[in-house]
What we know:
Elements: H1 9-35, H2 42-58, H3 66-76, H4 84-97, H5 100-120, H6 128-202, H7 208-233, H8 251-260, E1 264-269, H9 277-297, E2 302-310, E3 314-321, H10 336-346, E4 350-356, E5 360-367
Parallel strand pairs: 1-2
Antiparallel strand pairs: 2-3, 3-5, 4-5
Helix pairs in contact: 1-2, 1-4, 2-4, 3-4, 3-5, 4-6, 5-6, 6-7, 6-9, 6-10, 8-9, 9-10
Amino acid sequence: MDGARRRDTREWVVDSAVFLVAVLYGLVTAGLRLDSVPPEPSWLFTVDQFTGALGCAAVWLRRRWPVPLVLVLVVLSTFSELVGGALLVTLFTVAVHRPVRTTMWVFGLGLLAAVVYVVLRPEPDVPTALLLAFGVAVEGAVVGWGLSIHHQRRLVAQAETEAALRAEQAQHEVREEIAREMHDVLGHRLSLLSVHAGALEYRPDAPAEDVERTAAVIRQSAHEALQDLREVIGVLRAPVGELPQPTLADVDALVAESAAGGMRVHLREVPAGPVPDLAGRTAYRVVQEGLTNVRKHAPGAEASVAVTGRPGEGLTVLVVNGPPAATPAPGRPGRGLTGLGERAALAGGRLEHGGVPGGGWRLTAWLPWPA
């Protein structure tokens, strides 16, 4: 514990209570000693009272120096009976706030001091073994109580740490999901914008009809990109599951949109019938990322899309393109395929990609489709 800081109200109440317990223990013990005929010099009782008073006062320092204080009290308890209350309070503090090994060492020293006490100051009417057993039982009960609280607090702290780690992991997963959504959704739209804007740049002498048609596509793509951006930002305010998500049935529209933008792409087949939501959504993202990469890295290439499979065998997504018809614009490698691989893994599937003979590229994903 940090004894340098100011005590709060609860700590003042606790410290006052344990101080009063130590004082009460000393007063009761002193009263019993006065009622009996002491077989020892009167000066020893006076020293015992003085030592007991110092021990009770030292209880207020137990938060700052618990181990040094308990060692001093252990030494004093070898001859002082009235310091016992302060010793028990400090033993309890050490057991609660210090490592178990330290507590056991202190407890062992306390037992040794109890043996020394019963040898130096035996009770004429009480057997030595009984007196020693009583002292060991009291100290053991106090230390056991303190260790119980110590372990309980450690379990609570461990649970809080694990909860914080789980919350951090959940936040990380949400950020990853947002990043994937933004890349998949906006990358598709912005690649369309880039293709058509590049066409206007490299063909300033294009016919007015072509310029008008290209400008209309750019305007429509920009509008749809803005709508998609609003939906993606909605992930920050609501769970992903509450937002509209694409399905396998939307692949037709996705391919048609790319074809309308001037891309040479053909959809060969798509399974009919219901497909699991997660598999269908992931398949859509695979096709979307594949077409986006064709536009970015293989401009003018011909591409084909095929989605095959049935329940029990899984869903296979294939996007293949030929060699580019023009030199792609320079740019840094992105993280689209990395995010796509993470998507496939989260769906229980796998993703493969690589070049094909002739300069093309092949993107394949397999996704589970339970029977």
